[in-house]
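WARN no homologs supplied; continuing
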Amino acid sequence: QVQLVESGGGLVQAGGSLRLSCTASASGRTFSTYIMGWFRQAPGKEREFVAAITWIGGSSYYAASVKGRFTISRDNAKNTLYLQMSSLKPEDTAVYYCATSRSRGQYAKDFASWGQGTQVTVSS
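OK structure emitted
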């Protein structure tokens, strides 16, 4: 069973930056996965894809809405996934979740294990 714990959310002004972290662990075994990704969910909206990366190799892909502003990365030795967010906008306000997947997808149904989420609020 995989456990994911997000951190790093908070309140930031528009144009500012934040870095989210997601630490992974697996009960009784070494953590491994094919893909790790970030999703977000704003109040009253569906959960949407933000970015994802292959755990081995580091190949990444992004939603069009964040490309050029957000950077996903990982530290395999620390079992930690990151999301560096820059030039933040009020519309980036949401709960951000990390998740794992066995396939290169962009839909929430493609991802299996989820963290509890961390709130990001961008003020105008």
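The first strand starts at residue 2 and ends at 7.
OK
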